[in-house]
Amino acid sequence: MSHEGIRFVSENEASKATAQQQELPRGAIDPQRVRVNKTEGTGVEIDWKDGHASHWTFAWLRDACPCATCIEEREVSGLEPGQPKPQPPTALPMFKAPVRPKEVRPVGRYAISFDWNDGHTSGIYSWHYLRSMCQCETCRTEAARSAAKS
Ligand SMILES: [Zn+2]
Ligand SMILES: [Zn+2]
User: Fold this and answer.
1) Is the residue at 63 inside a domain?
2) I want to staple 9 with a disulfide (CB 3.0 to 4.6 A). Which of 13, 45, 70, 72 is the partner?
3) Distance 85 CA to ligand 2 centre (A)
């Protein structure tokens, strides 16, 4: 048996991959109801089949964009998904329109994608990604606890 072509991942990379692919029960990543409050500008609400409910603001979702470019940008600047980019202190205050999607599109049956009003469109937000990024009190406490453990 040849071992050629096996890619060795560092332990760090491997644990990152496991964290991203954490097992979630089917009902946890199946949305019962999805509401995109585009007009109100209040964000996205999902009721999951397991009875859990999640809510994200548009600003959070934009800063958690899962496209390759945004992931790389966050890695370079050490930001967590959903964490806003720090503004340089010397920058003149600039008017920034609140983040909103111009369009929301379903991607197959597993994800949604947004055309943001800043022109960015490449992020595909899978149900799994969204559920694993649930921002409710319970999930955030749980995430902080497991982060402290590792
Ligand atoms: Zn992106
Ligand atoms: Zn939650």
Assistant:
1) yes
2) 13
3) 24
- How high is the mean pLDDT in each 10-residue block of the chain (150 residues)? 55 50 85 95 97 97 97 96 84 78 95 96 97 95 86
Which numbered ligand comes closest to the C-alpha of 28? 2
Q: How far away, in angstroms, is 130 Cα from ligand 2 center?
A: 10
Q: Which domain holds residue 106?
A: 27-85+98-149
Residue 11 maps to a domain: no
pTM of the model: 0.80
**Total count of domains within the chain:** 1
Task: Give the long-range contacts of residues 135-143, CB within 8 A, separation 24 or more.
Answer: 135/54, 135/55, 135/56, 135/60, 135/82, 136/52, 136/53, 136/54, 136/55, 139/54
Cα of 134 from ligand 2 centre, angstroms: 5
Q: How far apart are CA 10 and CA 47, in angstroms?
A: 37
- Identify whether 47 is part of a domain: yes
In a domain, 110, yes or no: yes
